[in-house]
Amino acid sequence: MSDLQQQFLQKAARQKRKILFLRILFFVVFIALWEIATRLEWMDSFIFSSPSRIILCFAEMAKNHTIFYHIGVTLGETFLSFFLVIVIGILLAILLWWNETIAKVLEPYLVVLNSLPKTALAPVFIVWLGNNMKTIIVAAVSVAVFSTTITLYNTFLEMDPGKIKMIRTLGGSKKDILCKLILPGNIPAIISAMKVDIGLTLVGVIIGEFVAAKAGLGYLIIYGSQVFKLDYVLLSIVILCLISTGLYLFISFLEKYYQKHYSV
Amino acid sequence: MNHLLEVKKLSYAYHTLQGETLVLDRVSFSIEPGEFVAIVGPSGCGKSTLLSLICRLLQPDQGEILLQKNKKTGYMLQKDHLLEWRTTHKNIALGPEITHQSVNGLPQKIDNMLKKYQLDGFRNAKPNQLSGGMRQRAALIRTLMLEPDLLLLDEPFSALDYQTRLSVSDDVWAILKKENKTALLITHDISEAISMADRIIILSARPATVKKEITLHLSCPGERTPFLARSSPEFKDYFNLVWKELNNNE
């Protein structure tokens, strides 16, 4: 290895260490300032909470397991809605791809439903479905399912016509084109839809819990803000940060696994 | 009828909202068993449409396409269209998989084909690990797995660079001779047509009609491979003849 190359590598490694250090520093300074500001009463810790109060609050709620219950409820609802979004999204996209007439007829409705702010529907779902988990799941599914359907349908349509012709020249039917070509060929597209959906369904679940829940982190946020226990609110937000990062990493892991095992 | 394939007064038009485009106008020709026939014509003249009609992806508006009883066609496209997520082995198995052919002896058959055409070292490789020539060979084997009697070649070499193209046409030609297949090649490359075919059918610009048929007699020392055919003394004359025919718009 030449000296110049070595210098270059050292420089790159230094830069990487510097960025990692600054990231950690940013976090530490932010937490420290928050703590100091509330201790010295520059900010009211009753309203802004503080890192130490959040940790104490967590410790207390961990002792009687309530926090794990709330996390479990939110996670369970998120996974269930995520699963429903993916299954319904793929099935609807297949239906639209299969039947062009249905696709053309439904197109304007899907566009409207996709651009409609789904939060507007949440109160309607409560009235229709009641103040329970059904409302939360339906709200979360409605947030993500239309965009998923439209995205997947469009990627299905982009399949190379030459490949479709190839399947047909081998005697393949429309079902073969779907099973041998469209679905296996679009797994990367399905995974990237999943990446978006896991975040969207979490948003939908929290919205749902705001309006119709007796448990979950969204419920905890609303409850905390109403009784002025801001420790609850901020603790929930911190946990949501961790959950959303974790879920995203989980899908990224799936993607890496797929890339490693099924394509080069 | 002794012809393997007989096309009689075949006409076909495309319909769009902008209007009707007649692509093929009463095209007639026939192919005998074991023959290698090339169809040349200006680009966009409807050559690909003709092949789609012969393998029944499209239905003719008028005329007839008569294929000998119980004979099958196989189609090889411009690009190899190997599926990136499948290994060579699985790509080749695609045809039998679709037609639900009896699995009896199938793995054995695939192995034999891979060995015969020097791809057995790559049976578990993904398409992007194969060279252009190997990919085209894999695509040909995929077509041959269904044991077609008439092979339709739709400019199968046009996506390759010139050097690969020469060696792959030799390869494909040798494979077809070895398997004793009848082939119909369409191309806009005059030298390619002359080097590979026994007979050339020249089509006019759209709407395509048969302008002329030329039976080729190339004198080659030894076996007439496409590569050697290019250096035969008659090659240049045939080239000029076809060239003149293609550019002569009456």
Report on the architecture of this protein:
Chain A is an all-alpha fold and 264 residues long. Chain A has two domains: 3-43; 51-262, MetI-like fold. Chain A contains twelve helices and no strands. Chain A has helices at 3-39, 45-48, 51-63, 66-98, 100-115, 122-129, 133-157, 161-169, 174-185, 187-211, 217-226, 230-262. The mean pLDDT of chain A is 92. In chain B, strand 6 (150-154), helix 6 and strand 7 (182-187) form a beta-alpha-beta unit. In chain B, helix 5 (132-144) runs parallel beside helix 6 and helix 7 crosses helix 9. Chain B is an alpha/beta fold and 250 residues long. Chain B has a single domain (5-84, 148-247), classed as P-loop containing nucleotide triphosphate hydrolases (Rossmann fold, 3-Layer(aba) Sandwich).
Strand content of chain A: under 5%
Are there runs of chain A of 5+ residues with pLDDT below 50, and where? none
* CATH classification class of the largest domain in chain A: Mainly Alpha
Residue share in helix of chain B = 25-40%
The ordered H/E elements of chain A are: HHHHHHHHHHHH
| Helix share bin of chain A | over 70%
Elements of chain B, N to C (H/E) = EEEHEEHHHHEHEHEEHH
What spatial form of chain A do the alpha-carbon principal axes imply? flat
Mean pLDDT of chain B: 85
Strand order of the largest sheet of chain B: 5-6-7-3-8-9
Largest sheet of chain B: 6 strands, mixed
Largest sheet geometry of chain A: none
The CATH topology assignment of the largest domain in chain A is MetI-like fold
Count of discrete structural domains of chain A: 2
Radius of gyration based on Cα positions of chain B = 18 Å
Instruction: Quote the average pLDDT of chain A.
Output: 92
Helix count from the secondary structure assignment of chain A: 12
Radius of gyration of chain A in whole Å, from Cα? 24 Å
Spatial shape of chain B: globular
Number of helices of chain B: 9
